[in-house]
User: Fold these one by one.
Assistant:
Number 1:
Amino acid sequence: MSARPALRMALAALAALAPAAGGAQPLPPALQARVAACAACHGADGHATRPEVPHLAGQPALFLENRLVMMREGLSPVPAMAGLLDGLGDAELSALARHFAARPLQPPGPARDAAQAARGAALSQRAHCGSCHLPDYAGREQIPRLAGQREDYLLKSLRDFAAGRTAGRDKLMSSALVGLSDADLRDLAHHLAHHRVTTPPR
């Protein structure tokens, strides 16, 4: 079986495992050690403190599940995650995703630069960010939340998408960033990082 059909089957299985109503179930003891490993970079509450590491708290559970599957299968490699997902089945990845998705989202951190945020807001309209990520950038289903994400991580991700360095990721993002300068990407990241989510995680 090729990688893509196998991936579709895995994602379908994860969708079937997701609970009908929101809320994470208590993690089994075997997964608690994995959560501790995640916390070393992403924070025990899902809020990362290391540079260019994303917050996981409040992300859509399906988005996190998809990313975990892609990384486990080697279809979207992240060097820092190498080996951490070995031996985990779909149900365990789903449980980890729900655990971090259910962590409360903290409000944005450092004071925003109003002029830079305004430029970023205009760029987000130009790039139609809200069409997929929703107008408040809360994300939905397999599409990540951008609002309140770490600014340095957003900037790194935007630069990677713009340069085509995103194996296994949706190419739509790369096309949405065509024509934006690095200064534009910095403004966009600043706007998104300091935008408050107004809707609950989906």
Note: The CA atoms of residues 136 and 149 lie 13 Å apart.
Number 2:
Amino acid sequence: MKIQPLSSEIIEDVIHFHGHWCPGLALGIRVAQIALAEIGHSSDEEIVAICETDMCGVDAIQFLTGCTLGKGNLIIRPYGKMAFSFYRRKDGKSIRVVLKNNGKASGDIYYRELQEKMNSGTITEKERETFAKLRFDRCHSVLNAPIEEFFIVEETRETVPPPAPMTGSVKCCQCGEGVMETKSRFFKGEFYCLPCFEKFIPRP
């Protein structure tokens, strides 16, 4: 696998798109580099990405691979797993990229302790400065490490998803708002949007 390096300008563009620089975004950049090397870039909908997480790295994948939520060729499966599948429609080639569960991505014990303090709001100003430096160093460590140190590239576990459907809208019988027919629920001769269906139709 020949990974093409990214210029500092492109990395800055990814950070600007996402809003901040963090290890999760750095991991997403590396996943995108693997996808670009093995599957290619999607100018429209010819490549599909399935992300088994909704964390920061998904923004890097959208920005760099051309797979986006709006086009329907980036699909989120919120399993909380750092696993990403990519499919090329024209020839069926696909890969699944999985973060190794070896602890390297989560940092050392001290880093995790500071992260817990940051999350709980108990971190001191000095610890905050230390954490920011460690976080910055981790980002660059992820960017510069060999791919195999962090990731496994394997076969995908499902077939390529069908293209995003283009369907009409129907009117929800409760709120009166329009909803894509494929996203609606049909019950006793009436169309419901999902929020209204869950609110008004009792579950057995």
Note: Residues 8-154 form a domain with the 60s Ribosomal Protein L30; Chain: A; fold (CATH 3.30.1330.130).
Number 3:
Amino acid sequence: MFILTVDQRDSRHGADRVEPTMRAITRTHTGDLIRRPERTAGDEFQLAVADPTVTVAIALSLSAEGAWSIGIGIGDVDEPLPPSVRAGSGEAFLLARDAVTAAKRSAWRVAIRGGSSTELSDRNAEAVAELLIALRDRRGAPGWEVAGLLESGLSQTHIAERLAISPSAVSQRIKTAAIGTERAGRDTLATLLRILDDSEGTPA
């Protein structure tokens, strides 16, 4: 199980973004969440996810806003999990708390805690997450525009028509924005999270 604990950065100098962000996550990932986001305290919220690919998608979407410290805890939860994530308990919740505390001190705004195997640790997954965020932070507006259109399912030909540019210009934007590299990195991070989560149920 993946528990995400997310805290708004520098909230005293900006608007409260918790409610609209929770609504956006719920709307985008309807059916993918074990427990929907809920405010836990102040400018912090929490949610529960079982799928590592969804976990990566949510974490990267939040990181792109630059407004959140994102902690990901990997581990078991006490069963049965209550209807409200705020009432949940167990190892993953404790690790998510440790992770968001670490994320507040990180230049990359994310930390991962929990899970282990003979091949890797949570720090390996965290390093991949940091590299992905660093890559995405360098992306300019044209690259984000193309990335969003690709994510919506449009082909490069249709994107060229939509933006009134040549197909070769679309290809160049994809290359400059390192969209293919990001996709490979996302898949790698999801795989690492899956291994770490699976290891939690493996006897020592």
Note: Strands lie at 2-8, 33-41, 44-49, 68-74, 110-113.
Number 4:
Amino acid sequence: MNTELLEVLKIYSTKPHKEFSDRLTNSSKETIIAVFTDILTMYINDKNSSTIRECLTVTIAGYKHSEKKIGFNGFKQNSIVGGKPIACEAKPKNFNTEDLLAYEEGIKKTKPAKLNGGGNFTDYTFARLKKDKKENPHILASGFVDGELIYVLEFPFNCPSFVKRLKIQIKKRFPNGDKSGEFLRSANFTFEHYKNYKELKVIYLEKEKLEKNKKYLTKKYYDFLFKK
């Protein structure tokens, strides 16, 4: 974090708004660009929060982002007159190349997982699966490399092979049904679980960026996207 950004953050957090506003007004255009770029870079690469990646994914797919912590990530009007709004659930993944470098240098023991068109649902249960099947939100699977968007794919939740994948994992965790106060911590999926679904849509994909970041995707997933 550069010193100018640190100073701006300090003023924002400890001084009156006018002092913060004056500091920005009196800063050069180059300084403002540098500060703004630093903030975006940190935020979009944040390992502990995917909020900005989620918001970007939802917006690019044509939905209005919901800032609520609980519930679906966005909504858009149904093309059918009088139809119920369509909900979406964003599943953004970010590959951080610094993690790969740290692994190659022996600093980290675990090699970062490559992008595979997947995502996960946390604290999952049969009850939640039933609710999601009823609501049938559209899943938005997106992938980033160091905060740069590579792809966004969209498909309805009720894709049979996708639902089957989630159900198998819940069944393994709860063979006799849900238990009060207990959850499946993570129910995951990859592109393999929706790749053949007829309602799958490619919302965003640039072949040039895909090729540039080829080594950060699994080979099967790269080949799948390249044919789109």
Note: DSSP finds nine helices and eight strands in the chain.
